[in-house]
Design a protein that fits this description.
The protein is mainly alpha-helical. It has 19 helices and 3 strands. It has a 3-stranded antiparallel beta sheet with strand order 1-3-2. β2 and β3 form a beta hairpin. α4 packs parallel to α6, α6 runs antiparallel to α7 and α8 runs antiparallel to α9.
């Protein structure tokens, strides 16, 4: 309930135009010195008065600006939300005349909602800010900052649909942005969206790129590297993931993170035991353990596909039931995974459904088959050598740049 002295003073000021410019600021200071329980109702009455019909737009603007700044002093975020939402309702019919004050009030409300962990409400109130305005100049960086803040709030509640919509809206401004911290938040949001949407290879690349950023501290860079390894492990088995695992395995920092053990086994095509998988699963996020269409988790599917690929390195052919035993699943399910991977080109081989035997590399147990592990090691050595040659070439070009010959 509005205190009698505040109500009386507001009535007096509305009837005395000559005293408004000093009377309203003094009253606002007085309200902020009242007991906290009385402040919300008194402030709402104050907002009703300055945005009422007795004051014109020109007179109301500076008073509303000072009012929004004064709301920062409220100690409780609940009070900020109560007063701020009431004031927003008063502004909306004439928001074109109060765009700057509306934007500042919405930003203040977003701070309050975030402190209360009401991230959807924070995102929605920020989404109401007029960014394409003819009344005030808004830089591209400021627009990007608002959109990225909305994205991050939606990501806090795993709403990737709305988060991606605002991220796509901000892509056109990302390449114009000069603020390195803002660009970093954009890249991190993009990585989190890829991760949540199970685009693990894209997420891995984004996290790995972030791990080299000099803008963030070493601890955060190592956390980004860990996230990159997790996404690589969860990615579908195949040539593309193999190249990704190779890149991460060759990163000298990888040995310092807890996920290195499973990264090494996957890179070397070694079979993973249920105990190792469970240890890895204990540190995963909730969305990584979500069920897929066939009832298995993302991790279970990734491990089965990896162990199937690892089995193809060890055997030229294997019975379906024996393969199921190696993969810790049924023979029929192992056959389904093998058939899908062969169909998608992620595994080379064929299945004899009559004899229930899987032949890898299309080689039906030929004794002249080449040791594929040796070929893999040879390929890795050749790749490493060419990368070292490229580094030396780059260093030579930096030390002795080629200068164009002067014409006579």
């Amino acid at each position: 309930m509005v205190s009698p002295e505040v109500s009386t003073e507001l009535t007096r000021l509305e009837a005395a135009p000559s005293e408004r410019f000093t009377g309203y600021p003094n009253l606002l200071k007085s309200i902020l010195q009242h007991a906290q329980e009385q402040q919300p109702e008194n402030l709402k009455a104050y907002a009703d008065s300055i945005l009422g019909e007795s004051l014109g737009i020109v007179a109301a603007r500076p008073l509303l600006g000072s009012f929004v700044e004064a709301l920062q002093a409220l100690p409780k975020p609940e009070a900020k939300v109560e007063v701020g939402q009431h004031t927003l309702g008063l502004i909306q019919p004439r928001v074109v005349s109060f765009e700057e004050q509306d934007a500042n009030l919405r930003s203040l409300l977003a701070d309050a909602y975030e402190s209360l962990e009401e991230h959807v409400a924070a995102a929605r109130v920020l989404g109401g800010i007029q960014l394409d305005s003819s009344q005030r100049s808004i830089s591209d960086d400021d627009k990007l900052r608002v959109w990225i803040r909305i994205v991050r709030n939606y990501l806090e509640v795993d709403d990737t649909t709305n988060a991606e919509a605002y991220l796509n809206r901000s892509k056109s401004l990302f390449y114009k942005c000069q603020d390195q911290e803002l660009k970093l938040m954009f890249q991190l949001s993009q990585a989190r969206i890829h991760d949540a949407r199970r685009k693990f290879l894209d997420a891995c690349q984004a996290y790995h790129t972030l791990s080299f950023s000099s803008v963030i501290v070493e601890e955060e860079r190592m956390r980004a590297l860990s996230s990159a390894i997790v996404c690589a492990v969860l990615a579908p088995a195949g040539p593309q993931r193999s190249r990704t695992l190779s890149r991460l395995y060759k990163d000298e920092r990888a040995a310092q993170v807890p996920e290195f053990g499973i990264l090494e086994k996957m890179f070397l095509d070694r079979l993973l035991s249920p105990k190792e998988v469970q240890t890895f699963a204990d540190n995963l996020s909730e969305h990584h353990l979500a069920k897929t269409a066939d009832g298995s988790t993302v991790l279970e599917k990734a491990v089965i596909e990896h162990n199937l690929l690892g089995t193809s390195r060890l055997y030229d052919n294997i019975g379906v039931d024996d393969l199921g035993t190696l993969l810790h699943t049924s023979g029929d399910r192992a056959e389904e995974y093998a058939a899908r991977m062969v169909e998608q080109g992620r595994l080379v081989g064929r299945i004899d459904q009559i004899d229930r035997v899987i032949f890898f590399d299309g080689d039906e147990g030929s004794s002249g088959s080449v040791d594929r592990r040796q070929l893999r090691k040879w390929d890795a050595n050749v790749q490493g050598l060419t990368e070292e040659v490229e580094k030396v070439t780059t260093l030579l070009q930096s030390e002795y740049p080629v200068r164009p010959l002067l014409s006579d």
